[in-house]
Structure formats: structure tokens, C-alpha cells
Records
---
Amino acid sequence: SNYTPGNKAKARDYDSEGQAIILRAAAYYEAKVIGVDCFPDRAMQIGWTNKAFQDACRTAGKNYECDMRVGKIIRGRGSRVQGEMLTYVRDALISIHDFSSDTSKKAKRQNQKLYDKLSDRMAFAYRDIDNRRGFAENPIFQLILRLACFGKGPESRSVVFSRFFNPVSLETLAFFMTLIRYSLEQYSTGIYIKPGKNDGFTEQQNKGFYKKYLDELQSWTDCNPVFVENFRKRMYSHAREKLGIDPTRVESLITGSIKANMRIELADRTGETDTEDEGNDFEPVAQDDMDQEDD
């Protein structure tokens, strides 16, 4: 280890093998934060850290001990990934809802109008914002999922640790909603205001919203559990298909009715002779012509 006492511990303090194991464990921990619980309590954090390190050692075929310093590096990825997620959410808000970074009066009015509309009674969560239809189906959720969890191709956290993302959990959706609400507040004046150090995304200020959204998502699930489960599975499969790492599924062009007609048409045929009504489409080649071609 190249660690210097008094400095903040980092993965790069270790040799290449140790660094690879720590980074793998950190990726596991980040995946759990996004896919399982964005605000794990202390006991959960320690449990996740140990499992993450064990998983990384098993993958590397090694047997190291996760000491306090390494554990602190891994757990530190919790707040790190929350900050990373905010960047993706802001990008998604601009892409989906067309928030402007301009400071003109026109842009300010547009942003303020969007903020008021989207913030009203969780309107941002609906596919149809005006009529509040299609809860949790707004395209922003799919975009955030792709940006945050599928951005590194086959090495993406949602592929390597797919068990935490397939299907997309209610906890993940609640996390996205919490991040969206927080990011929307930065446009409340009509001009984007970057939060100060004391206004960052913290558990203390946001866990209440997270729990509220999780309750709303559970109520949504209770309305039609089968639909919601299939919807969450489809969210994952659609995002994964965009990566191009899986074979594209091509639907059959022979439908049931066409297949039934084929069966009737072929019922009395053996394939050993020409059909009675088709005749022979191929003219026989004369032997003399074949001899000339051979010359």
C-alpha cells in the first residue's frame, strides 16, 4: 500500500491487483445504492461493504481481508454515486422537458412555467403530464436508467450486477423521483441555480421524499401487480437492448393464419414431384449445349 497516514484513503494507494479488487467492490456497492436502497443505514452499509469485497475477491480468485481503510473507500462510493446520478438527472431534464440554460427573460418564464407544471402533485412522474395518466411511465425514467446504468456497454453496472436491476426495482424508481424533485427545485426561480455546499443532496433533506415516493409506487403496484412487474422487466430489457450486446429478437413474419393456410396447402404434398398446376419452371438444358459449354 502507498497510503500516507493523515491523507484520505484512495483505491490508487494500492498496487494494480489491490486497486482492481477495490474498484470492483466499489462498483458492486454503487449498484446496490442505485438498485436496492439509496439511503442504506449503517448496518446495511457495513454488510454491503463486506459482500462487495467478498464478491470482488471471488471474481479475482483471491482471498484478502477488507480492513477499515478499504471499507471506508468502498462506503464512500455511496455519496459519490448520488452526485454522479444528479448529473444524469439534470441532463435528462434538459433532454426530455427542454429546460433552458439561457438567462433571458423569455427563458426564465419558460423554465418557471415548466417547474410549476412538473412540480405540481408529482406531475413529472406521469407519461401524460396534463391529464396525469401513465404513472411512472414518463420517458425521463428510461433515459436516466440508460444514462446512469448502461453507459459503459458490457461493463455497465446494470450488466455486471444485473441482479440488482432486473427488473428495475421500485426503490430505483423512487430514487429517480427523489433526484428529479431535487433537481427541479434548482429551476424554481426560472434560472438554474447550482446548489451550494450546504444545499447538496443529503439523506437528511431527501429521505422523507424518497419514502413518500416509494409508498406511491407501492400503491401503483397494488393496482395491477402483473402489469407493474412486466413494466419494470421491460424497462431493463429495453435499456439493455440499446447497448447492442444481446442478439436482437426478430419476430416471426409467419403469423398464425398464414401458418394455418400453409398447413392446408401442404397437406397432400410430398415434395417428390412437381405440383399439378405449377408445371416445370425450368427449361431442361440440351446435352449438346452442355457439351459446347464444356469446350
Note: Residues 278-282, 289-294 have pLDDT under 50 and may be disordered.
---
Amino acid sequence: MLEKIDSFEIENLMLSADENGIVQVVLSRAKKRNALNAQTIEELIEVFSRLPRMGARAIVLKAEGDHFCAGLDLIEHHNEQRRPEEFMHVCLRWHEAFNKMEYGGVPIIAALKGAVVGGGLELASSAHVRVADQSTYFALPEGQRGLFTGGGATIRVADLVGKARMIDMMLTGRVYKQQEAVDVGL
């Protein structure tokens, strides 16, 4: 398995595996607070499609830097000036990546720290277990920016915290600190 780990052509993720089949997938865009751009989503699809077939027994998803994931790369989103149908395609790719994680057959543990917001919360919600350090905070700020949560928060986050709390998070941008998040089910 270790030789196969080197076969991935990725730039925004780092992979390592031990002899027991435990794989670490590391988001490596720390300067962008590990924001998810289109390339990173494609890399997540590739990695989470192939790792189960390669014999991974468990996956630890973590991040470089001080933050797990700040969600959608807003600079790329703004610069691309996508038409609505193009953005819908982007959203569908996010769903594919997160479905590969959730339904891929390999348990995923997300090691969370700092910002877990927007698409970062959608990414974390796709993991089977979430572990958060004291610096972690959670939010869905898209609504305050005129954006819709297109990566699956309306389903995955609602499954964790309930529909009413998810709607509140989306409409208010409410931030939950680590212990509050644990208490509400994140």
C-alpha cells in the first residue's frame, strides 16, 4: 500500500500510510486556511475513490496550519465568475467527494482545529467520527454572504444537529465553539 500511496497526482493533499493500513489525508493549503477550490475537490474524489480499493483500513483526515477548513475558496469562486449551471456542477462535485467519504466503506476520523466553517463543516460532516481540539469553531456563514450551502450542509449537518438548528446556523451564521458544538451534536 505504501508504494501505491505515491501514485496519486495531487497538489493540495498530502498522503501517508502506516503498515497497518491507517492512512492520513492532510489538507495542505494552510495559507488559504485550507479553503476548498475545484482542484482540491477533484483530489478528494480521487483519493476517497481509490483508498478503499487499495486496502485502507481507516483514514484520518486532518489539516496543515491552524485551521481545518474555511470552506469554499471565495477568491477562486469570485475570479471564476461561473454561470449558475457551472456552479451547480461544482456543487455536484462537492457532493460526489463527500459521498465517496461517507459511503466508501472505510471509517474516516476528522481531526478538527480552528475554523470548520461552510464547506469545511460539510467536509467534516462527511467523516464518521469528528474529534475537535479547544481552538475549533463551527459555522455556516454562507447565508450572510448571499451564498447557499451547496456542499450538503442541509442534509449532513441537519442529520447531526437537527433541521431547526441547521436552519438557524444557515440564516444567522451562528458560531459554535468546541464544547458548544459537542453539546449540540457536531
Note: DSSP finds eight helices and eight strands in the chain.
---
Amino acid sequence: AQSESDPGYYTQQIYANGLRCWNGPERSVKLNLECGIENEIISVVEPEKCEYHLKMKTPAVCPDNPFID
């Protein structure tokens, strides 16, 4: 998916129903993977208790990657 505000190729993975936080919700992760030359963590934030959003760059999601069918 591409847009003018996010010009790179990307994919999103969501991991839900993790271990319950102490006195809180179950842990969850939203992982955005963008096309990049090498593996790189761009950002990690916790917008809500035990909810994590990660942004990474990796050649694994690039459309011209020879390892992707």
C-alpha cells in the first residue's frame, strides 16, 4: 500500500491476546514493516498500557525482493 503521506511499500502485522499485564489488559503489538535497504528499528511507542506500536525497515517486504513469491 502506498500513499503520498507514506510513500514506501509496507506491511502490517498485529499480534493480539498476549500475556495479561499486571493489573491491565492483554499485551498486543502492531508492527509496521517498511521497505528498506537493511533491518532497522525506526520507533517503538506504547500509546496505551501494554499496547506497543513498532515501526521497522527491512528488505524482506520490498516488492523486488527475490525471496518473496
Note: The radius of gyration is 14 Å.
---
Amino acid sequence: MAKNSEKERGRNGRSYFLGNNVETKAAAALIILCVLYGFRIFQSASFPSTWDEVDFVLAVDRFSLADMQPHFPGYPYFILGGMLFSAFTENNTLSLVLWSHFLLFSSVFPLFWLSKRMTSSLAGRFFITGTVQVSSYLWFVSSQPISEGAALGVMWWYIWSLCWADEKKNLVKKSLPLFLFSILMGIRLSYLPLGTGLLLLFVWELRKHRDINRIAILLTLAVLFQWVWLSALILSEGGIFSFLHLAFSFTEGHFTEWGGAITAAKLTLLERSLLFIKNTWFTGIAGENILLLVMSILLTVLAVKELQGKRIKKEGALFVLLAVSYVIYAFFAQNPEKPRHMLPVASLITFGVYAVLAGKNKGINRLLAIFLILQAANGFYLLKEARTVRPAVYQLEDYISKSGEPSVLYTWEETRMLQYTRAPFTHKRIETFAFFKEDEQNYSGYTVYLTGKALRGFELQGAATKDCAKKVKTFESSHLVDPVYSSISLYEWTCRQ
């Protein structure tokens, strides 16, 4: 009798502890992922390394858009999560990182559920979910105190909810993607183009029910969900008028001065296009690894060939719409110098390629497995490299602090970091050469330093600086952590009166 029951359990693939074979594999995959996340947390940033990161970290203690804690649009749900996790650690940087990891880890479930719609292969589902999760550049970015990791986690819940809601008749269930989209907007407003998914959901709804009242109800709910975080921001800034003034000022600066939008950047269309492709593919998908780049291109070509002559599923159409919508927005409105802005597209492409290829045959599965393992290994490498070298701005502070001379440093944006670290010397953000010439006269007996960014700003204003600026040192750090200020040159101003 005992032997028969053992045989029966063998036929059913069941055990007393982990259930059937599927459950065993799922449990094993989840344990491996937990170990990888543990390593991520161990190697995560423990201090802010960029201007944006300082904004976020300071906001955990005191939220104020007026004081750039953080900068507009406020990222309220990201900061709220950091505040909640600050109960477990006194390090505000780590609290934001933990919040990002929590949301990103939770996206294992919608990723697996979405993959079930794409392939009947269990191995394929694990490949899809695992590769998106261990993508080396996403691994790297989610370990910084910035909102991209958290936003990517919610993005996958949102995409899954669109597919799930389409199958439901109940309006309450239909409202789930509206709610999740509001959470996504409260974490990272630049993911707004993904709202085209809601428009597609409304189109599907109209085709099924041909009832405009249902659409009106859903639209009303969508507005109310967004109003929750928006009204909180308005109250925090003292009212609608002060909030609008701050919003318009920031938006104008983003699109006309420093934001990197096509209306502000000084790149040609060709230069912007090439940088856009590099940031999406070489950095976003391949983690700046040549082998991963070659493999990703090969896998993409195979996926395109596999799709030829086949009808795209409804879920596939949704993915294409979301990717194209975000690509158009990111190309024209985002800063091309920051690869992290392309993470949504990189993640969608990775998911799509794996969804097409996973489970097709053993040869393809081996390629997918190798790509997954290399992504994880490259993630280890990127984190280790970033932690080995101190950010350039910290090196700059150390150098001037140890000089032992009274010094004043004129910077462009670096002064935000120096304020955070409470640098023991005078430093100022300077924008015009005329003001610099007037102000530096107040520091007789001081060594006057300038950063390369400040100096280039003077040159763009027509100032003759070549004979007066003596290069002292250049500080280098990881360009993945801070693409803009990974290299800082320090100059001494020698034309003193």
C-alpha cells in the first residue's frame, strides 16, 4: 500500500514539502532570486552620488518642492515609501533603495503571469521573468536612491493589470489599472506615455459593451486616483497658485535650459539618435558588455524572424504601443545623456524577445539561459565597479579639503553635492562670468578654483579664460552612476588682482 502511494505521488509529481515538480522549480527559482536580491542590497549605495539622489535623500527627512527636496514633480509615492522603510534603517539612502528593491521584487508575480499568456513552456516563463529581473543595468540602477527601480516594478504590475482587466466585466475590477497607473505617476511622472495603455483598454471596452457611460465612469475614477497624490503636493506647497508657479518654472527650465529635451539640448538630430540607440541597447539592454550586446542583437533577429507571417496577439499589440509611445516621448523630451531614462523600453524589448523565443527548442533555450547568466554576472560586476571608486565630486572635496589652504570653489551644479556633504571650504554655484569676476575679488589671499563645467559656461558667454585657468587635476568615477559628472576637472584661476 505504501509503495502504491509512493508510485501515485510519483505519477502526480507531488511531494509533501514543495508540492509538484512545477512548485519545486518555482520555489528554487524564487530562492535564487532572493539570494540575488540579498547581494543587491548588500552592494547597494549607502550615500547619494548625484544631484538628483541628494534631492531624494533629503526629502525622506523633510519634503519640500520649494527647496528641491525633491525637485518637481515631487515623486510623492517614491518618497513615501522611503519614509516607511526609514523605520528599518537610519540611512535614508538605503531606505529608498530598499523600497525600490521591494517593488521590483514584487514584480516577479505580474511578470510570471504575463509570461503565461505568451508561452506554455514552464522553462520559458522562468526565462522571461528571470531575465527581466536580473537585467544588469536595471540591477545597477535599482541599487541607487533614484525612482527608476521602483517605477519599473510598478510598471509591470500596471501592464499585467491592463491584460487582466480586459477579461473582467466588473467596473471595480476594471479600475485596477487606473489605480496602479496613479501609483506609477506618483513614483515617476515621466512614465506618463505608458498611459496609452489605458486608452487601448478603453477602446477594448467600447468594442465589447458599446456603453459610453462605462468609459465616463472609468475616466472619472482615473482622475480621482491621480488627484490623491496631486492634491497632497498642492497642499504641501501651500496652495494651487504656488504649486502651479513652481510647476511652470520647472517645466520651462526642463524644456528650454537644462532638462536635456530636444528643445534645450545642443545635439544634432543624428547625434541625439545615435546616443538614444546606444543608451537603449548598449547600456539599457546589454549593460555596456560587448558579449551581451552581440547576444541581444542575435536574439532580437531570431525573434523578428520567428514573428514573420504571424498574427500579433492582443498582449503583443499592447507591448508595442507602450514601447513606441515611450520611445517618442523619451527621444524628444528626456535627457539623452542619462541611459536610465530608457529603462522602460529596454525592459519591454527584453520581455518581448524572450516571450517570442522562450521554449521554442533546446538550442534557443540554451542561448536564453546563457544570456540570463551573463546578465546576472554583469550585474555583479557593475555594482562592484561602482562601489570601488568614490564619486568624482567626493574626490574633488577631499582634494581641496586636504590642501590646507584657504580656498573658494566656483561650480556649476556640483555645489548641491558639496552642500549635502558640508564641505569645509567656501563653494558657490556661478552662472555668469561678470558675477564671477566681481565676486572672486572678495577672496583676497584665497586660492580660487573653478570646475570644468563652470569654465565652459564662461567660454560659451564669450569670456577669454584660456590664459587665466590652470588645470590642476581631473577626477574620474563611474559614468553609469552619474553620466554628467563622472569626470570633473579642477582649475585654478590665476588672473588675480
Note: The chain has two domains: 44-388, 392-493.
